[in-house]
Amino acid sequence: MALIIDGKKIAAQIKDECREKVAAYKEQGIEITLAVVQVGHDPASNVYVNNKKKACEYVGIRSLSYELEETVTEEELLALVEKLNNDPTVNGILVQLPLPEHIDENKVTFAISPKKDVDGFHPYNVGALSIGLKGYVSCTPAGVIQLLKRSGIEIAGKNCVVMGRSNIVGKPVSMLLLRENGTVTVTHSKTENIKEITRQADILVVAVGKPRFVTSDFIKEGAVVIDVGIHRNADNKLCGDVDFEDVKDKAGAITPVPGGVGVMTVAMLMSNCTASVEINERA
Predict the structure, then answer these.
(1) By residue range, what is the domain housing residue 81?
(2) Please, are residues 230 and 240 in contact by the beta-carbon 8 Å criterion?
(3) Residue 9 falls within a domain, yes or no?
(4) Distant-in-sequence, close-in-space partners of 102: CB < 8 Å, separation ≥ 6
(5) Is 52 considered catalytic here?
(6) Which of 17, 23, 112, 166 is most buried as measured by Cβ atoms within 10 A of its Cβ?
(7) DSSP strand pairing (238-239 vs 92-95)
(8) Among 99, 113, 94, 109, which residue's Cα sits nearest to residue 49?
(9) Catalytic residue (choose from 15, 38, 96, 115)
(10) Does the annotation count 13 as an active-site position?
(11) Is residue 164 a contact partner of residue 133, using CB atoms and an 8 Å limit?
């Protein structure tokens, strides 16, 4: 039976660490503020935004909420982002995705000041990651690395395979694994003989967006399997990109869904917000 990597426990540790740092900043008269902008009433977005608000309250970060109707124009949204960019009391800006079709997500993402881009999606921060400079790292990939490190799993020198090449997970997590001195291969929908590649992985990060896609024949005995996916199955239960029941006895360590990577995303957002004080001082 594999080690079940406890994302809830690790996320709680990170939030507690942030809480201590935020309290120390408050003693110095520094208050950290996160502005969360939501357009429309997407049910999944509602859940994420509520989780972020609860985490802010726990950690001690002031949270500003901007709930806009789906009919808001792109110009109005960009004007709000610019207002928040220019507000010295706001440390971080988060525009919840997805946005309605009439709004260009890239334009909005690029409009957020890199100094306040706590989601880590701005090209400046992505570029900083790629060349090893300090900056915000997108929360889910950063959470993957913390899960590995805090579970005592060595990355340096290991064969790491990332399944998926998205801008939000696949590409940044591959760069983070490289930064930790892993030897990294990225596979995707056009990769041939994919199982031959994944079976060489000491650490396999799965972010393909397909429910229970990865079965035991994708992995080698004792591999560490990190499942980034989250879906609802036919019984309306949460599941990941990995067939957990099929893989758990072959893997050396594995993240469950739920309770693995997902809970780390909000914890790492809190970490980014806490780091915003230093990042804004350097800028």
Answers:
(1) 29-127
(2) yes
(3) no
(4) 73, 74
(5) yes
(6) 112
(7) unpaired
(8) 94
(9) 96
(10) no
(11) no
CATH at residue 234: 3.40.50.720
pLDDT in tens, 253-274: 999 999 999 999 999 999 999 9
For residue 93, is it within any domain?
yes
Question: Quick one: tokens of 145?
Answer: 């690395």
Strand partners, 204: 161, 225
Diameter over CA atoms, the chain: 57
Catalytic residue, chosen from 115, 116, 117, 119, is 119
Number of domains, the chain: 2
| Nearest CA among 279, 272, 230, 260 for reference residue 15 | 272
Do 177 and 74 fall within a single domain? no
CA angle 187, 188, 194 (to 5 degrees): 55
Is there a catalytic annotation at residue 96? yes
Which residue out of 15, 52, 158, 171 is catalytically annotated?
A: 52
- Rama region for 121: left / alpha / beta (φ>0; ψ in -120 to 50; rest): alpha
pLDDT band per the 50, 70, 90 thresholds, residue 281: confident
Q: What is the pTM of this model?
A: 0.95
267 part of a folded domain: no
What would the two tokens of residue 101 be?
Answer: 């079709």
216-235: pLDDT as tens digits? 999 999 999 999 999 988 88
231 - beta bridge partners? 239
Pairing of strands 231-232, 238-239: antiparallel
CA-closest candidate to residue 264, choices 177, 137, 171: 137
What's the CA gap between 174 and 157, in Å, rounded?
14
